[in-house]
User: Fold these one by one.
Assistant:
Number 1:
Amino acid sequence: MPETLIPTAASAVPPRASSIRPPRPTPRSRVVGENSTLLYEGGRNRSLYRVVDGCIVLSQLLDDGRRQITDVLGPGRLFGFTVDGRNIATAETLSIARIEPLGDADLNATNPTVASELKTTLQRMQVHATLLGRKTASEKVASALVELARLFNRTGRNGAPARLGFHLHLTRADLADWLGLTVETVSRCLNRFKREGLIDFSHPKTMRVLDPERLEATAGFTRHRTGDAARP
């Protein structure tokens, strides 16, 4: 039987209205379906969002309608950054995703979490600019696979990461828009990597990395570079 609280003399008298403070709202995550547009480039936005689970891509449209994916976000990443109150990119889900809205206070760049995310975003933009401008098609596709394997590792039966397997949320067209390639070039590189024993896939959305070291070498990564600085 639940316990009944009997008010004491002090608690029986309600506090004055001026002393009552509304509870501070707490972030509530929500589930969003696959292929949903969350934010539009150039639209107004007053909040940041955290990816709790799933895959979200940021993109910008060129004048002729072509799409350039600028970043692929996994769990823990933030999105919704603006310039003059307008979104700098369109945010779309490539899978069922859970996102968590953050309050206006979290928009302050002095917030440690936001400041860290801004540094991560800047670093990834610089690495991606190098990838687009200087890497070969094979290096680009290999770089993308290394990065996606890191972001979306599967969990094994014992709870440990299944390092060599991941769900490929991006289609061949998405990869092309991310890497500045054609769909045909992306498919050709993936099929060659499969023939050479670097990767394996029995389904377009299921990817296994069979030889991580060779794949990283193909991507142009070197062993003496550590951390995300060596990643796309």
Number 2:
Amino acid sequence: MIKQINPGDIISYIEMCTQEGLSLQRGMNFRVNGGHSIFLMSVRKGAPYNDKVEDEGKTLIYEGHDAQKGWVKYPKDEDQPMTSPNGSLTDNGKFFNAAKSFKEKNNQAELVKVYEKIKDGIWVYNGLFKLVDAWVEKSNNRKVFKFKLEITVDTILQKVASLKTIKELEHNRIIPTSIKLEVWKRDKGKCVQCGSTDNLHFDHILPFVKGGTSLKAENIQLLCARHNLQKRDKII
């Protein structure tokens, strides 16, 4: 049985692939198995693309992806492609058209599950977002795609009725990568209550809905699933 993951959960690459039921080799994955889409992001130093977290985690700016190796000689020197050499849409093109369709009020916003890489082999589930905009801009003498995503509750409630822990998204704000790494190092990758290294979660010591911040390491800690649930029960 595949365990339910919630925003803020720390998982391995294998767990992420198991959760989605496929081997995630690409950063952009449009309508996986006909359902939601998936973005794999990173804002770490040296990341291959310029992804950004804005507005205390409510908004993401995700950069499109380069041409596949074999299509062009130097992908980083070429414009990011809308179509492949055979004329079919790339994931850039699919997501761009989905954002355009939403802006023109032809369709609802595309739902995108976002996973963020914080260290090699270690990922955080950032939650479900809606794709609200897309554009092309100049970067280092070439054109790149940019995609704007906003965290949402209403759209998720309408389209993902099976998500039982939706209330968790009401207070979720993405913790900046620098804070995640600081907390991971400080807490030594273990639950601060019992020392467990399994089923970890970035927990707000003072909940976001009660005024707690995501922007200071002092308000974030690592908890295992058991102690996270115990704390939640006390708050509720």
